[in-house]
Amino acid sequence: MSHIAVERNRRRQMNEHLKVLRSLTPCFYIKRGDQASIIGGVIEFIKELHQVLQSLESKKRRNSLSPSPAPSPKPQLQLTPPQLDCPFIGFEQVKELGACCNSPVADVEAKISGSNVVLKIISKRIPGQILKIISVLEMLQFEVLHLNISSMEDAVLYSFVIKIGLECQLSVEELAIEVQRSFCSETIYANEI
For the segment 145-182, what is each residue's pLDDT rounded down to a tens digit? Predict the structure, then answer.
């Protein structure tokens, strides 16, 4: 009889822990509600968080090793449609139907996940930047399904899950560039929209 009570208690605790894990994990990581899916989704989420942590730590090391320059006024970036004259470090295709668009201001990664796009942006904290990004996404016919914002010191990670609108004609490469453009000179970009 005591064995049955112990087993019942163990299952109750396991279900409570699974509920907590599910509540802490963004919904797009967990495909179904069974235990294996929840644990698998949590593992993927932790792996992704670990990658973000490594990226932020390496950026922090690079920043601490490089001498800090004197503050300079913001450069006026010239944008000419459809080309972008931002000083990009790189633009590359990534696995799983995605693209990265990196600059000194922000790193943008867009990946297709089913009928949605997972968009990750790492940048320095810029007041009002999230509103600009959301405005750009809405202008491009994307619907924000989920948004997670994480920060560490002066860096911030924006993680979006966005639904692709029916009128959307953009590739993931173009999406990454458009989001990157929102970090460029505010007045010039506002005139472009």
Answer: 888 888 887 888 899 988 876 666 778 888 888 888 88
* C-alpha to C-alpha distance for 181 and 32, rounded to whole angstroms: 36
pLDDT at 85 over 60: no
Distances (CA, A) of 5 to 2, 54, 77: 5, 44, 69
What was the pLDDT predicted at 73?
42
* Sheet strand arrangement including 98-102: 90-94, 98-102, 106-113, 116-124, 155-164, 142-152
CB-count burial class (<10 Å; 0-12, 13-18, 19+) for 174 = middle
What is the reported pTM?
0.50
User: pLDDT at position 79, please?
Assistant: 29
